[in-house]
Amino acid sequence: MEKHRERVLSLENLTIIFGGLVAVNDFSLELYAGDLVGLIGPNGAGKTTVFNMICGQYRPTQGRINFKGREIAGLSPDRITALGIARTFQNIRLFGNLSVLENVLVSFHVSLNQSFLSSMFSLPSYLAEEKRMREKGMQLLDTLGLAHLSQEEAQSLPYGQQRRLEIARALATHPSLLLLDEPAAGMNPQETRELMSFIQRVQDDFDLTILLIEHDMKVVMGICERVAVMDFGVKITEGSPEEIRNNPKVIEAYLGAED
Amino acid sequence: MDNKIKRDLVLTCLLFILLMLGTWLAQLYLNSYLVRILNTACIYVVVAVGYNLINGITGQFSLGPNGFMAMGGYTVAILMLPLAQKEQVYFIEPLIYPFSAFTFPSYLFGLALFLGGVVAALAALLIGFPTLRLRGDYLAIATFGFGEIILVFANNLIPLTNGALGIKGIPGYTNLWWTVGLAFLTVFLVKSLVNSSFGRAFKAIRENEVAAEAMGINLFRHKLLAFVISGFCAGVGGGLFVTLIGTVSPSLFTFTMTFNLLIIIVLGGLGSITGSTITAVIFAFLQEILREVEAPHTIGSWSLPGIPGMRMVVFSALLVVLMIFYRRGLFGNKELSWQLVIDWVSRSKNGKA
Predict the structure, then answer these.
(1) B214 and A96: CB-CB below 8 Å?
(2) Residue A186's pLDDT band (boundaries 50, 70, 90)?
């Protein structure tokens, strides 16, 4: 019998309308602690829009987003991050001119307990905290296998490492829920395999609940316990990878209906 | 790590002592013309470093420093002008109460400068509050408008600013001790801020606003912080400037001032505090050296008449050349640090050996 697990995120009847376009319609999903759920669907189905609503980039036209018992729909992205939701981006959005370590340190800023004056005057209390932050940052990079690159400029990293750094940066905000937007996009099979084990390891190490958008079926079928499928802004089905694979609706959405 | 911080601190203190020694020697031996240029250079440093914080580090395009300098300049002028001089200067309409009733003694000059900075910072808060909530170029438009509005106010608020005639006879409290000291302090403080967690947040906003916000950074608060600090620096710089030349009028803080500062921070490298510092000094000297090209000349049998404004032509040409060869300015967004200096010194030593 499965243990009773805490509900982390619940999306209830989310709808968002841009002008006359209903981008996401009546979308509901529940995530429990420790879940690794995949969100799939053809291009333009509204997957990233769902992410943007969870993270506060968009305010849903209708519906509720509940994170650990708290209503978060319409809060600003920085407040939602502070509550414990972190994300990566489909098109990589690193701070290109900053070093790898600095990219991670930016995420610690929200938990800094110092005023700008104490950092301006380099007070000992600030310097101590800065030192702690750097140590913590190096530790994090070390567990994620990026420590040897800490002083490199983020934009100079190879593609696979940049994706990994995006995840590292998201983890540095101390999330309990991690949203990954197409983490395997543009990766070769070797990189994809590495990424899959990387995601699983990170989930265990950091005690995370993960929601992930992915096009690569190998990734989705390989690591997700549950999969939700979207098409034209509507959730068409949800179930185990096995069920999804054989669902005629899913096949229709991806390959078109047989006439 | 710890040792490096201590080493840098010691070196910075040494630099400060060296600068003070240099200032002392300069006061003793340099002629007043050179001292004047040095003063101007240091004032440029104060304002340019603050300006780079918002434009280069945070990536928000402001065109406001001339307005903020004007606010600081007028504040200091009104506070420091002796009472007798106040009666003489404001002959069209008397200066409004309470400013007509008191004046700061010379030992409160530092406080007057601080208040000049505070007034400019408050103005920055006022403009930043609505505009920095928006994304895009609104700040540039709003700050450009602000600079013009301040000049219109300065021209027409006669009971406060004496209109287009300006205020004359401001005691010349600004000397090298003040300018060098404040330039050093500004560079040190702003550089510490930029190297801190706040500086990383500013840079993250410059690099990618969406990602910065998703990593928990409150965009509005941090942009406003950078903008207000930048306004404060410009206010202090304006205050130093008017007590250096002894008069203030609206024509002193036209858009040309902002343009000059823009040249400085772009040449030094947007995002490099040390770069701005160095180019500010170069710029002040170049401005004087290039006076030569505006003077009439005779070369052999060829005589050239003096062309006023020729300086700016040379400047523009120089700017074009620099932008071709150093597209990101002299320093890009890198900082000159003690580590770099030490590496460079030890490398040139090894090269010789």
Answers:
(1) no
(2) confident
Question: Comparing B298 with A158, which gets the higher pLDDT?
Answer: A158
A76 phi/psi in degrees, rounded to 5: -75, 155
Asked whether residue B352 is domain-assigned, the answer is: no
- From residue B243, alpha-carbon distances to B81, B167, B179, B230 in Å are 10, 11, 11, 20
**Mean pLDDT over each residue of chain A, to the nearest integer:** 91
The answer to whether the Cβ–Cβ distance between B214 and A108 falls below 8 Å is no
Structure tokens at B41: 């250079």
List the single residue in B189, B193, B216 with the smallest CB-CB distance to A110: B216
Q: Is A87 helix (H, G, I), strand (E, B) or coil?
A: strand
Which residue is listed with tokens 């895009």?
A: B136
From A81's Cα to the closest Cα of chain B, the distance in A is: 5
Other C-beta atoms closer than 10 Å to the C-beta of B71 total: 29
Asked if B295 contacts B350 with a C-beta cutoff of 8 angstroms, the reply is: no
- Closest-CA residue of chain B to A123: B192
Note the pLDDT of residue A2. 52
CATH of the domain at B280: 1.10.3470
In-domain check, residue B303 = no
> Considering only the top CATH level, what class is A7-97+166-255?
alpha beta
pLDDT at A1: 41
Residues, chain A, total?
Answer: 259
The answer, yes or no, to whether residue A118 has pLDDT greater than 80, is: yes
Overall domain count for chain B = 1
Q: Reply yes or no on whether the pLDDT at B241 is more than 50.
A: yes
Residues B189-205 pLDDT 10s: 999 999 999 999 999 99
Residue B201 has its nearest CB partner, among A109, A127, A134, at A109
CA distances from B209 to A88, A92, B251 (A): 14, 13, 37
Interface of B with A (CB under 8 A): 1-2, 5, 9, 189-190, 192-193, 196-198, 200-201, 203-204, 207-208, 210-219, 225, 271, 333
Q: Which domain holds residue B172?
A: 40-291+310-344
**B351 pLDDT above the threshold of 70:** no
Tokens of A96: 């290109």
Nearest-by-Cβ selection for B197 from A78, A89, A119: A119
Mean per-residue pLDDT, B293-312: 80
Rounded distance between C-alpha atoms, residue A177 and residue A195, angstroms = 18
Strands A7-18 and A21-32: antiparallel
Put simply, the answer to whether B197 touches A112 (Cβ < 8 Å) is yes
